[in-house]
């Protein structure tokens, strides 16, 4: 991908295939910006991913805590229904969700991209598994000392679950950053496109700008790569912790 992004598209189908970087990087970058307004769509994707990550992570943490530490009738049924939603193919949801967004007048809006999937079944299950082994005695002690539920959750429970929270944040950010089908259906204005949708516009019926696609994909990969490299220990520890508990 790095090598292809520095050559012309015609060079990629020549003989022999290029194995060393070329000198067309700046030209490809200028063409990518001209055809897709790539700087703008990178900002769009970053903003959407950050907002979605914040809200989805908050929902997952609160729901996971509630399912792990509160006793109420039907708790097992609720958890089962949440897990069942992970088995529903995305394609089955497209038509009813599209009709729902159209009835709300949210077509071509960012809230339509974010809100339908803000409650993540995987995120809720991951956080529930993380909170299961948290000592109930500490929570009871905080309540006896006069701390309300929010203060207990924020001050006492969350700091212990930092590895799992880091894993949840990385996974949630990657999910939204790489989302393609739903943003493609919802966003009609080019200035609102996300990176995957913008790159898709470079695939024409008779011509595909492979050099531009490779360069755009390379740039779009860098934020995820940096995020994972910075938090890789927490990510791996969080996933392993959520897998073996409970």
From TrEMBL:
All residue ranges annotated as the ABC transmembrane type-1 domain in the record: 42-231
GO cellular component: plasma membrane
InterPro entries: MetI-like, MetI-like_sf
Location(s), subcellular: Cell membrane
Database matches in Gene3D superfamilies: MetI-like
Membrane-crossing residue ranges in chain numbering: 46-65, 77-98, 110-127, 165-185, 210-231
CDD domains recorded: TM_PBP2
Pfam families: BPD_transp_1
Entry membrane topology: Multi-pass membrane protein
GO BP term, example: transmembrane transport
UniProt cross-references to PROSITE patterns, sorted A to Z: ABC_TM1
Primary subcellular site in the record, as a coarse category: membrane
The protein, known as: Carbohydrate ABC transporter permease
Lineage: Bacteria, Bacillati, Actinomycetota, Actinomycetes, Micrococcales
């Amino acid at each position: 991908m790095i090598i292809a992004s520095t050559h012309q598209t015609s060079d990629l189908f020549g003989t022999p295939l290029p194995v060393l970087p070329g000198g067309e990087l700046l030209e490809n970058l200028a063409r990518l910006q001209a055809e897709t307004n790539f700087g703008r769509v990178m900002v769009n994707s970053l903003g959407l991913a950050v907002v979605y990550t914040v809200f989805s992570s908050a929902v997952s943490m609160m729901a996971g805590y509630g399912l792990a530490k509160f006793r109420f009738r039907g708790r097992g049924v609720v958890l089962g229904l949440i897990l069942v939603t992970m088995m529903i193919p995305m394609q089955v949801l497209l038509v009813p969700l599209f009709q729902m967004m159209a009835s709300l007048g949210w077509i071509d809006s960012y809230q339509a991209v974010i809100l339908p999937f803000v409650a993540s079944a995987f995120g809720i299950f991951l956080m529930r598994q993380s909170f299961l082994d948290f000592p109930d005695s500490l929570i009871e002690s905080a309540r006896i000392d006069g701390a309300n539920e929010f203060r207990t959750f924020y001050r006492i429970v969350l700091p212990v679950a930092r590895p799992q929270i880091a894993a949840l944040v990385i996974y949630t950010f990657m999910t939204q950053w790489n989302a393609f089908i739903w943003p493609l259906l919802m966003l009609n204005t080019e200035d609102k496109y996300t990176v995957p949708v913008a790159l898709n516009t470079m695939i024409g019926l008779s011509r595909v700008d492979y050099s531009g696609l490779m360069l755009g994909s390379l740039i779009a990969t860098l934020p995820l790569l940096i995020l994972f490299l910075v938090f890789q220990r927490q990510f791996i520890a969080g996933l392993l912790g959520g897998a073996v508990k409970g």
